[in-house]
Protein: Zinc/manganese transport system ATP-binding protein
Organism: Halomonas cerina
Amino acid sequence: MSRLQLHDLQLARGGQTILEHLDGRFQDGAITALIGANGAGKSTLIAAIMGMLAPVAGRVACQVPKERRAWLPQQLALDLGFPMSVEELIMTGTWPSHGALKGYGADHYRRGREIMARLGISDLAHRQLGELSGGQRQRALIGRTLMQEAELLLLDEPFANVDIETVDVLMEVLRDMARDGATIIVVLHDLEQLSRLTDDVLLLAGGHGRWSSPEALLDHQAGVVPRAPRLPLSFPEAPHAGTA
Ligand SMILES: Nc1ncnc2c1ncn2[C@@H]1O[C@H](COP(=O)(O)OP(=O)(O)OP(=O)(O)O)[C@@H](O)[C@H]1O
């Protein structure tokens, strides 16, 4: 089953085509790695999937309701300087379905506490976001998507500037969300993380997309540079239009 499909998608930025003839299905309950060199078009594709960028041609078919779609940008892109506690942030996860003005019920608060316990941040509930470490902040942000009951989750380098223990916790939570049927797409640059976490790979290169498996990608990388720790090093040639 796939609730997110790309059909001959063409995307442009500033009048310049960035990606074209992009096809494929993201499987429900699977975690897909989105990889590619800087400027390959990863953020552009994410913007299109989130409905923030209209395609030049083709389409994104997404059956996940808007209130169940969540997008977690790179931490650096987030302004977390405004006064808000960890608990308050997590509770905002109810906004897309419940509205921002209705206030929260006892059930919401109970779920919020369960989520913080699961993420190991209960003792930080009343801490301001600006006073958190990178790992603590990322746990809180993932907590918000759990509160939202996100069924489509896009994450841009979620493990950057995050401690090893937090990486383990977050990977476990993401795997659980996928097991519950969520479609998860994660921009990654780290091969080890990719092989631990993901089921599928969508590689962007040369304006095209190519689907692969983590195993095939790792085999290819091992042949190119033994013990290569980081992506991107070299990618298999992306097929040209019509040959995919
Ligand atoms: N608003 C914009 N106007 C014009 N060009 C843009 C705009 N945003 C991005 N681009 C260009 O589109 C191309 C794809 O950018 P995109 O941010 O999607 O790549 P990326 O794969 O996410 O890169 P990175 O790994 O560096 O985040 C780049 O050449 C970039 O310079």
